[in-house]
Amino acid sequence: MHTVTTRPIEGQKPGTSGLRKKTRVFMQPHYLENFVQSVFDSIGGAAGKTFVVGGDGRFFNDRAAQVILRMAAANGAAHVIVGQGALLSTPAASHLIRLNKTDGGLIMSASHNPGGEDEDFGIKFNGPNGGPAAEGLTDRIFARTKEIAEYKITDAQDIDLSRIGETALGDMKITVVDPVTDYAALMETLFDFDKIRAMIADGFRIRFDAMNAITGPYAIEIIENRLGAAEGSVVHGTPLPDFGGMHPDPNPTWAHELMDTMNGPDAPDFGAASDGDGDRNMIVGPNVYVSPSDSLAVLAANAHLAKGYTEGLAGVARSMPTSAAADRVAQKMGLPCYETPTGWKFFGNLMDDNRVTLCGEESFGTGSNHVREKDGVWAVLMWLNILAVRKMSVVEIMQDHWQTYGRNYYSRHDYEAIETDTANALVTDLRAKLPDLPGQTIQGRTIATADDYTYHDPVDGSVSEHQGIRVIFDDAARFVIRLSGTGTSGATLRLYLESLELDPANFDRDPQDALAGIIGAAEEIAGIKARTGRDGPDVTT
Ligand code: VG1
Ligand code: CO
User: What's the Enzyme Commission number for this chain (predicted)?
Assistant: First the structure.
């Protein structure tokens, strides 16, 4: 073991979900080491502790894992549980942290960002509850990166992570586990595999696009091997260091191959995709795309049909920019409903305190208290379970849902890689306008409230400010603007749009048309196109 002298490196501030940078930034001398040591220092040291380590298999995953193991050993950790090949999906890592009652875990991933030597890498720390470090801890980690003077690392050859079993590094025990086994077992406790298997045996066809990222092995084992879907139902099922050039972000833009299949002549009954680290999901039926906000609402309304949720839900939570479709379900079912800032770390307290069972975000994230991360494969299985019980198609489920609860038209417009100064100025100017907005009528709609969202955590009382600017109209339509906290170049501005439709005659509109008025109002107030010089968003979901 030796102690290496280092100096603080600028910019190691964790964002919405961990520290994400260009891979080459992470590969600079001391960069990864400084951050990992800062994590250990911020949790009272690693001595005697047990951690889970794994990642989504992107470029540098294997090297980073070896560094983390050597640093854990040098810092006195007792035991590390690591996925074979240093692979673990984010939800599987969360499960292993909980299952083995460990002190937390280090997850190597930049999630939905592209991978490769010239693309993105990331790392985040999850605590003993299996969830992403809360803001208090990420603030401490960042503060530590600004004063770090040394880190500890062991001199050793690489540990062979290709074989399942026990090994050691000095006094530290290392257990290499199959990344899928424990996770698949957990899924069997939550869902009626028999019913799904019967539906598939009856001819129900599935296409799961793993986008050459981490969910491939999970989906092949669960959907093909255990549920009996035809071989080849899982496509792009081998995790590759550069995701085969795919951008593993499961939305209609980046999962266009899946969209083409689902909108084509021989579409299967059900389509789904997941992201780089396996915590996101997109659900599609033949010629129908389920908006993630609607998906959360459908799951909330139907979860009791799956065996792990027969007792009903304690409550539901959604991130602020996510549509209020889930709120409408909660209201009808008499369930508590919570609104949190963007990022899964805010759901942890609510789940730990047993206030909510299901959580979701508009960004293709849904999950439950079975782990403390959003979970792509879980969402797919929940959908399959609901379809198997209700014996309806995806489009029938959606239509039935809107008939019952009304339809919250929803869309997100992303303006990517805009100049940071332009983005910041836009937000600052908009913030300054907020006090004058209520009462004004814009494009025929009157503004009811306008604010910069502040979250008060009901469990620990912590306060998170500046979590997104929201302008709400008196007919419940609204738009939200915030800057992304996961990008690695320039700024990404997200415009979230929503309007409520209660007239069944209007449930089949194209969301962009239904939202045209609110899109126009947002432009009039915030001037995104005018100020960025862009014609329109780069990605529309
Ligand atoms: C985005 C999403 C957010 C999600 C986060 C991490 O954050 O909007 O809802 O929790 O990514 O997801 P931002 O700050 O870029 O809007 V993942 O699958 O990238 O860990
Ligand atoms: Co992800």
Answer: 5.4.2.2
With the most atoms of ligand 1 within 8 angstroms of its CB, the residue from 319, 339, 342 to mutate is 342
Asked if 104 and 136 sit in the same domain, the reply is: yes
CATH code, domain carrying 426:
3.30.310.50
Check 38, 42, 109, 111 and give the catalytic one: 111
pLDDT (tens digit, 9 = 90+) per residue, 203-245? 999 999 999 999 999 999 999 999 999 999 999 999 999 999 8
Instruction: Tell me how far apart the alpha carbons of residues 283 and 386 are, in angstroms, rounded to a whole number.
Output: 13
Domain boundary among 354, 389, 405: 405
For residue 60, give the CATH number of its domain.
3.40.120.10
**Number of domains, the chain:** 3
Structure confidence at residue 384 (pLDDT): 98
Token digits for 417? 């890689």
Task: Report, as an integer, the average pLDDT of 129-158.
Answer: 95
Q: Whole-prediction pTM value? A: 0.93
Q: Is 111 a catalytic residue?
A: yes
pLDDT at 17: 83
In angstroms, the CA 337 to CA 356 distance is 8
Q: Is the CB of 275 under 6 A from ligand 1?
A: yes
- Domain ranges, residue 482: 407-540
Closest ligand 1 atom to Cα of 363: 9
What is the distance in A from the centroid of ligand 1 to the CA of 349?
A: 18
CB-based contacts of 23, cutoff 8 Å, min separation 6: 58, 59, 60, 115, 116, 117, 118, 119, 120, 121
Nearest CA to ligand 1 atom 18: 111
Residues 439 and 326 in one domain: no
Both tokens of 373, joined, read 């991360």
Q: Measured from the CB, is residue 126 less than 6 Å from ligand 1? A: no
